[in-house]
Amino acid sequence: MPDLDVAVIGAGAAGLSVTAIAAGLGLKVALFERGAMGGDCLNFGCVPSKALLAAARAAAEARRAHRFGLRLPEPEIDWDGVREHVAGAIATIAPNDSEERFRAMGATVVRATARFVARDTIEGGGRRFTFRRAVVAAGSAAVVPPIPGLAGLPFLTNESLFSLRERPGHLIILGGGPIGLEMAQAHARLGCRVTVLEAARIAGREEAECLPPLRAALEADGVALHEGARIVAAEPDAQGIAVLLEDGTRIAGTHLLLAVGRAPRLDGLGLEAAGIAHTSRGVTTDLALRSVSNRRVWAAGDIADPQGLGPRAFTHVCSQHAGIIARAMLFRLPAKLSYAALPRVTYTDPEIAQIGPTEAELRAAGREDLTILRWPLAENDRLVAEGRAEGLVKLVTDRKGRLLGASVVGPGAGDMAGMFALMIGRRLPLSALAGAVLPYPTAQEAGKRAASEFYTPKFLAPGTKRIVGLLNRLP
């Protein structure tokens, strides 16, 4: 008999979710983790970044209080206090991901590096474990680009950024994606000089119509944005570090943060020994997240590459993967991954939320039967009252009124994402949202108003007016 029913490599969001489900069902489970329990999300990603953003937002609100007739002094940034807030957020959530909690569930927790040594065997902590099923959930790490001179310099990634004991004087950020932009705004609001260098355009995956409010907000906070900036070298500088651009510009700063992307943690897993097919994008799986070459093995989270769809480095995708694996691996039920309704959010101020594909992605896929609906947040009473009415809701539907994708930029855009994800995932017609009774005043009303725009032309058409005129003559 195998030692384990399920072996899980990685105690991040995906691995913890799979372990909790399997252990809860009474299976023999071992969870292998060489680093901190909770993985990137808890220790170096979602939790500390959102805690830092919250502190930065408080500073920004103090500076903007004059809009409401309040006169406050420039906030004094206590960097040690900010760091304590971030550490406190991690410490408060950590028990949910702790070794003790998962041992109490009945799982064996092995705090050591794990690697495959055969198709059905994992080695970790000085022991070998045979298994019926295994889940690779080793996550991802920040990409270090091959820039000449960079390797010998003290650059930062998300794993080292939050442990800085002193506030950066001038933080240079390579990469204008979600991590780069969130950390740029947070540090700028906390009194740092910040420069963002992006080889293409910032927020390159997001709806282009959503970018003007974001650019304006970042620049208002003091972030220097350099789009189309190609870096050719890095070198030491009296301040700390400098980068050289293709056009000859030299930018020096005290700290350099790399935020140009993520790569799956494949090294050291012994995937070859287990016959697990993989590429630089991750473990190759089918849409049930099962390895295409070793049917005992599944992959989840950042390390999974299902049928070439590529990894999706989001904690909520880890939860989605865990649910699919539970159905397919544990209950032997049909399960199929789909990202058609996948939401993602960049938690800047304003936030950008994308649910499903953008208009450009749909057109690139050959969809021409599209209807575009927009509603400006300047028309939203709640946001007008709060002095934050900059942004847009954009919906992309087919000609029958089925929502295909949604883009939102504005305060609380992420809070609207769930509404649109539900509509796309459940294939609800726009009439479900247009006819919903939402509380007034809320920002979500902008989504309803955008959906109502699909029916307005029909409602006000000449034929409709004639019918109403005839009905009005009836007694």
TrEMBL record:
SUPFAM superfamilies: FAD/NAD(P)-binding domain, FAD/NAD-linked reductases, dimerisation (C-terminal) domain. Disulfide bonds join 41-46. InterPro entries: FAD/NAD-bd_sf (IPR036188), FAD/NAD-binding_dom (IPR023753), FAD/NAD-linked_Rdtase_dimer_sf (IPR016156), Pyr_nuc-diS_OxRdtase (IPR001100), Pyr_nucl-diS_OxRdtase_dimer (IPR004099), Pyr_OxRdtase_I_AS (IPR012999). Coiled coil: none annotated. Keywords: Disulfide bond, FAD, Flavoprotein, Membrane, NAD, NADP, Nucleotide-binding, Oxidoreductase, Redox-active center, Transmembrane, Transmembrane helix. The keyword Membrane applies. Gene3D superfamilies: 3.30.390.30, FAD/NAD(P)-binding domain. Residues 343-450 form the Pyridine nucleotide-disulphide oxidoreductase dimerisation domain. NAD(+) binds at residues 175-182, 198, 261. It holds the Pfam family Pyr_redox_2. One of its GO terms (molecular function) is oxidoreductase activity, acting on a sulfur group of donors, NAD(P) as acceptor. PROSITE patterns: PYRIDINE_REDOX_1 (PS00076). Binds 1 FAD per subunit. The keyword Ribonucleoprotein does not apply. It comes from the Bacteria. The chain crosses the membrane at residues 6-27. Its cofactor is FAD. FAD binds at residues 50, 302. Belongs to the class-I pyridine nucleotide-disulfide oxidoreductase family. PANTHER family: MERCURIC REDUCTASE (PTHR43014). This is FAD-dependent oxidoreductase. It comes from Neoroseomonas eburnea.
